[in-house]
Amino acid sequence: MMSIEVIAVERKQLYAARGANPAEREELRRNVRQRSMELWQQKWSASVKGRWTHRLIPKLDSWINRQHDEVNFYLTQMLSNHGCFRAYLHGFRHENITDYPAGCGAPEDAEHLFFHCARFGQARGELNVRLGGGIEPETIVRFILEKEENWSAVSSFAKVIMTKLREEEQSRKKAREPETIAPRVMQRRLTDFWKH
């Protein structure tokens, strides 16, 4: 999403031209939007945040001007590296470790799961064949922007991975529940007791 700072500059310039004739206003609107996109791209490329997403989508204009589909819940997690990934959850102290315990020791994040993890090797191989090969973080968005079938295939792959991760997270959470829920129940009972 374009930053509020860039949007404010754009709106200020458009407001200043409100008295121009319709043709001039339309030309100005296109020019101002182009400058806004350039400024946004500069900020996007220089930012230290969102580096995973930047690696996938380095050029904002191709993403913004795509011709098909919306980003769904599963693709959002893949593109942002925010979701049921142990490495992400560990940062919020929702997980004790960052990697898959029975795995290779790599952090359980979007890059590892979508592009390297043996757990999803078969599904990744099928996707690779379907897209014509060469799936990497630097190429995946180019593939999904090429045609709607590619978008659907990558979206389905993301759904398989994220659904499995969510199931695993829920199982771990349930296994930890007795130790974390008991103090809350006891606290609530004491609180209820003192109310009466």
Automatic annotation (TrEMBL):
This is Reverse transcriptase zinc-binding domain-containing protein. It comes from Bracon brevicornis.
